[in-house]
Design the sequence.
RNA sequence: GGAGACGUAUCGAAGAGGUCAUAACGAGCUCGACUCGAAAUCGAGUUGUCCGCAAGGGCACGUGGGUUCGAAUCCCACCGUCUCCGCCA
């Protein structure tokens, strides 16, 4: 949610900054409603003040044995009037809120306008692997090795699911262990949150109402709408940890990471070139999350990107880091870096981590504040998130990068401690 | 799933239609006094938010409705916590 005062004071500025994201905002109706709303607030509060005075008066008059019929009749009137105004007010507020909810976050000043085409690669690690044999697609490799079972995955969950088996399951778990180890080393607190969340959690994250159809919803038996959903990313849980709290400045930043599977409908997003585990309905991810004071969020974002990149680097995978143009950042974010790993069979880079600074956008939606030590005033915190990492594209990258002519795959060294020291995946 | 109890400030807790919601009482915390210093004692302070240039008002007793001139207090629904019973990994 954007700062309503900023829109009031400088709608043109907000309009320009949203335009960088390709979002066209028109505030004329909003401003009109806002003026009307504030007028009504003043009216109703005047009446309420009168009511409060009378409420103190009535018992006094009664005690003195005086007649209160007249004042009570007058108050009946005031009460009806107040109710009427409050109804109008609620209507206007709802409309205003709905509009506010629909506005994405404003991109940071150093983020360029435009869409994907303006993304800028800022760092490249390693180079494309070269093979002296015909390299295989990861689906073929993992099926030969018997470590991912797509057929039975579909049997169990339908298309878009798979089963990790044998060394595949161990490799997956090794990756997660490797990530967790690094985060713990860096002093991040490990969390294991619920995977089923309330609607409010999706709202705070900025996921709802706009993108509520991207998640698996859990319907109530009665009525319409949904009260819970299965999380599409641990970010949705982590951003709600401190909802409606006032944090202590000296205790910030909070640095968390959580492992959860991520569940996404991905309706209509199937592409042939993404066969395998590039885009599934469920994938494993470790998510990093920070709550910071505003002046520290920029540095925190750099830290998160650095951490995510270091993980990919530790695996020795060729990847690049891009700074996204405004239009390619998701709605809640002011600035985003993507880390993309090279997938040889796709002849393309695929995202393995997205690191973003939401500024105070999510904090406003979730009412997450901290108290300034110096002034005693409350202020919204900044929230940041970064995958660290999602495995579903790392595992294909690993098997494709490290495949050998005989169909075996060299296991990256950092993972071997969790593979019983094993150095290579071979067909059993 | 059944039965019941309870949600009030940082915590415990009183209030049971108006005269107690900047909320009694107790504790904590902050500042000050006393002290060489500390403890004890004494004094002061200690929620958030909205409208307003300000003066000054409004709102919030889990949440949302209702009854009433007036609701923390009565009624309804929902959420949460706890206890007992049943079922269960």
Sequence:
């Amino acid at each position: 949610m954007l700062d309503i005062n900023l829109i009031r004071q400088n709608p043109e500025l907000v309009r320009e900054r949203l335009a960088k994201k390709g979002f066209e905002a028109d505030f004329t109706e909003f401003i009109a409603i806002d003026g009307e709303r504030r007028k009504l607030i003043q009216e109703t509060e005047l009446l309420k003040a009168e009511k409060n005075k009378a409420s103190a008066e009535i018992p006094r008059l009664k005690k003195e044995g005086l007649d209160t019929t007249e004042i009570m009749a007058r108050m009946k009137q005031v009460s009806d009037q107040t109710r009427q105004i409050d109804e109008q007010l609620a209507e206007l507020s709802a409309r205003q809120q709905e509009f506010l909810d629909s506005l994405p976050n404003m991109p940071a000043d150093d983020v360029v306008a435009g869409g994907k085409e303006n993304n800028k690669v800022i760092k490249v690690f390693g180079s494309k692997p070269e093979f002296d044999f015909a390299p295989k697609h990861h689906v073929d490799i993992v099926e030969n090795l018997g470590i991912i079972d797509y057929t039975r995955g579909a049997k169990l969950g339908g298309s878009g699911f798979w089963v990790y088996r044998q060394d595949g399951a161990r490799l997956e778990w090794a990756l997660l262990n490797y990530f967790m180890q690094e985060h713990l080393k860096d002093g991040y607190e490990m969390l294991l949150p619920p995977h089923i969340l309330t609607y409010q959690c999706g709202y705070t994250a900025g996921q709802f109402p706009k993108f509520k159809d991207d998640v698996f919803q859990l319907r109530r038996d009665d009525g319409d709408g949904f009260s819970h959903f299965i999380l599409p990313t641990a970010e949705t849980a982590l951003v709600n940890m401190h909802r409606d709290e006032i944090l202590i400045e000296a205790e910030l930043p909070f640095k968390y990471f959580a492992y959860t599977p991520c569940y996404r409908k991905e309706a209509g997003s199937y592409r042939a070139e993404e066969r395998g585990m590039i885009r599934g309905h469920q994938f494993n991810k470790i998510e990093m999350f920070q709550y910071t004071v505003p002046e520290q969020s920029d540095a925190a974002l750099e830290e998160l990107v650095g951490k995510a990149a270091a993980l990919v680097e530790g695996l020795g995978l060729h990847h690049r880091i891009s700074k996204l143009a405004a239009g390619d950042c998701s709605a809640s974010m002011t600035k985003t870096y993507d880390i993309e790993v090279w997938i040889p069979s796709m002849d393309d880079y695929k995202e393995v981590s997205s690191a973003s600074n939401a500024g105070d956008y999510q904090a406003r939606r979730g009412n997450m504040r901290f108290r300034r030590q110096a002034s005693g005033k409350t202020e919204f915190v900044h929230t940041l998130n970064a995958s660290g990492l999602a495995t579903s594209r790392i595992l294909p990258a690993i098997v494709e990068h490290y495949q050998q002519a005989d169909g075996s795959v060299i296991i990256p060294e950092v993972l071997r401690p969790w593979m019983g020291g094993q150095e290579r995946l071979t067909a059993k």
Remarks:
- Residues 28-63 of chain A form the longest helix (36 residues).
- Residues 329 and 336 of chain A are 6 Å apart (CA to CA).
- Residues 38, 41-42, 44-46, 48-49, 51-52, 54-56, 58-60, 62-63, 68, 71-79, 246, 378 of chain A lie near RNA strand B (CB under 10 Å from a C1').
- The two ends of chain A are 54 Å apart (CA to CA).
